[in-house]
Amino acid sequence: KNQVEQSPQSLIILEGKNCTLQCNYTVSPFSNLRWYKQDTGRGPVSLTIMTFSENTKSNGRYTATLDADTKQSSLHITASQLSDSASYICVVGRMDSSYKLIFGSGTRLLVRP
Amino acid sequence: NAGVTQTPKFQVLKTGQSMTLQCAQDMNHNSMYWYRQDPGMGLRLIYYSASEGTTDKGEVPNGYNVSRLNKREFSLRLESAAPSQTSVYFCASSVNRAGNQPQHFGDGTRLSIL
């Protein structure tokens, strides 16, 4: 079954600290893995997109890694800011005629001053 | 640069009422999508339009209809609203459906069915 599991469900960190969010998937055939940031009351915004040949991709203080062999990805946030408080959604795309995207349920991050 | 614009932002309906959610994009994208987001669940695809003039069902199409009015606009209609359709609805667009293009989302319509 095509699934995307994210952990932890929620996380609280202090401003300035680093954190890592995890994503495990069972989607096959694999096409790409995406990370989105969703602020409260807003739509998701794309952070990174990686194909199977890419191990890592950065977007400012956000760095995503992908291990296609173990079907795991992580999103590392460096030197967190209050504005990083949001939900982070992992999305995996299928490589078939459906081009279907399977969404994880997200990790809710709260950065405290 | 507006991106993807959804109207209305909030709506309360009674069971059995109908309504249309509007979506427009100004990025000249070919593909457009409608999703619903429910607590504790990932976004689920309702319908999509790979290109102007085409529409197809997603994961959860029952109770909904769509119209791709032109390249810019893609509307979602609830013919007879049910409490199970209480959700946040997101419209998205991308250059094309295939490939590794990001989807750009609107800010959602929060719909409550009483």
Structure description:
The complex is a heterodimer of chains A (113) and B (114). Chain A is mainly β. Chain A has strands at residues 4-7, 10-14, 19-25, 30-38, 45-51, 56-59, 62-67, 72-77, 86-94, 101-103, 107-112. In chain A, a hairpin with a 4-residue loop joins strand 7 and strand 8 (72-77). Chain A is globular. Chain B has strands at 4-7, 10-13, 19-25, 31-37, 44-49, 56-57, 64-68, 74-78, 87-94, 104-105, 109-113. In chain B, strands 2, 4, 5, 6, 9, 10 and 11 form a 7-stranded mixed β-sheet that branches. In chain B, strands 1-3-8-7 form a 4-stranded antiparallel β-sheet, with no helix packed on it. The relative contact order of chain B is 0.33. The mean pLDDT of chain B is 95. Chain A binds chain B through residues 4, 31-32, 34, 41-46, 49, 51, 89, 91, 93, 99-106, and chain B through 4, 40-45, 90, 92, 97-98, 100, 102-108.
Keywords:
heterodimer, A: 113 residues, mainly beta, 6-stranded mixed beta sheet, 5-stranded antiparallel beta sheet, 11 strands, globular, B: 114 residues, 4-stranded antiparallel beta sheet, 48% strand
